[in-house]
Amino acid sequence: MKTFINYFIVGLISIGIYIAVLFNNDKKIDKVYIPLGYQEITCYKAVTAECGNNRGYGAFGRRVAINGHPTGKFFANNFLPRGTKIVIPSISSRQVWILEDRLRPYVNGKYIGNRIDLLVDCDSYKVARGVRKAEVYIVKEIK
């Protein structure tokens, strides 16, 4: 079983390096893109109605919004570790999103599962509402 897992991880890294070459026009590879598969993507605003009374701070204590406007490209998820960086090419091209918040597991009595919830500005929210599926890649920096 350990051998299978080792080959599986090496395969994921190889696929990620191949994808990094596709995304990166430079000769130097500085990032690896590891496919996470198709995930449900939603958006939320940094307002009390959607975030509780957190005053613009994410679940880990980082300032993610000021007066309802995001201070960066952040997302919420319950299963990835804090600080995970992702890209969603079909939604935001090469824009890197950073995990700095968590989701409530139930919304209106319905289990929302392993969803990626993007923090957006109030103006963008009007356009981005709803649930969609998109391919997501984890970004790993190569030092």
Blueprint (SSEs and pairs):
Layout: H1 2-23, E1 31-45, H2 48-51, E2 65-66, E3 69-70, E4 74-76, E5 85-87, H3 89-92, E6 96-101, E7 106-107, E8 110-111, E9 115-120, H4 122-128, E10 132-141
Parallel strand pairs: 1-9, 4-6
Antiparallel strand pairs: 1-10, 2-3, 4-9, 5-6, 5-10, 7-8
| Class inferred from helices and paired strands | alpha+beta
Average pLDDT, all residues: 76
Major sheet size, sense and barrel closure: 6 strands, mixed, barrel
Assembly type: single chain
Model description:
The chain is α+β, with helices and mostly antiparallel strands. It has one domain: Barwin-like endoglucanases, CATH 2.40.40. 26% of the residues lie in helices and 36% in strands. It contains four helices and ten strands, in the order H-E-H-E-E-E-E-H-E-E-E-E-H-E. A six-stranded mixed beta barrel has the order 1-9-4-6-5-10. A hairpin with a 2-residue loop joins strand 7 and strand 8 (110-111). The longest helix has 22 residues, at 2-23. It is globular and about 45 Å long. The model has no long low-confidence stretch (mean pLDDT 76).
The gist of it:
The protein is an alpha+beta fold and about 140 residues long. Helices cover about 25% and strands about 35% of the residues.
Index terms:
143 residues, alpha+beta, Barwin-like endoglucanases, six-stranded mixed barrel, two-stranded antiparallel sheet, 26% helix
